[in-house]
Amino acid sequence: MRFTTLLTGGTAAAILLAACTPVDQYNPNDPNQRTRQGALTGAGVGALAGALTGEGGIDKRDRAIVGAVAGGLIGGMVGSNLDQQAAELDRAIVNDRVRVINEGNQLRVIMPEGILFAVDSASVNPGIIGDLYAVADNLNRHPDSRVEVIGHTDNTGAAAYNFDLSQRRASAVGAIIRDGGVAPGRIAAFGQGENQPVASNLTPEGRAQNRRVEILIIPTR
């Protein structure tokens, strides 16, 4: 009973530790960072699942150990694959204003509005299309994922208009990724308008950060 309690407590701590790692602390010079974090999170989740499905003290312990090992292997594999995919994207994308962030369980590709669209437009700038095709090529080489293309705006103007603009922009980016050969069934494109700011809308610099399109690459196994 004491072992099970300690194991469950350690599991919770592992999950919290992995989940609370700020994404900006990802070190691209450490190719194994997300692999380790993925293994830690997977082990924690596996141990907790095993402990919760066991019937007695010993059974719970044994299931927790098996779950931790299996979860750690799976989590480490996912983290390693994302590390590799993120590094490939970094090399393939030419525009240095595009950010690729490995969040441990998914990749987030952030493209500022200024490189994608003219003001108040949903027509993609020709100069960035090559980088969007590079994203599509990367997705084709890593087929075990789904993709969410999400448009965001600042809070200037009417909220309904901003939502519609963000939707049209996400759809335009998603269409180019599909043109790059990615299966339409893998891609969902939608807008969030001004609902998910990443900076203050009280300054021009903050509003510029909020005007963006994000491409989330989410492993499916």
Automatic annotation (TrEMBL):
Keyword field: Cell outer membrane, Membrane
Domain of life: Bacteria
Record-linked InterPro entries: Bact_OuterMem_StrucFunc (IPR050330), Gly-zipper_YMGG (IPR027367), OMP_bac (IPR006664), OmpA-like (IPR006665), OmpA-like_sf (IPR036737)
Gene3D superfamilies: OmpA-like domain
Domain OmpA-like: 104-221
Subcellular location: Cell outer membrane
Protein name: OmpA family protein
Organism: Albidovulum salinarum
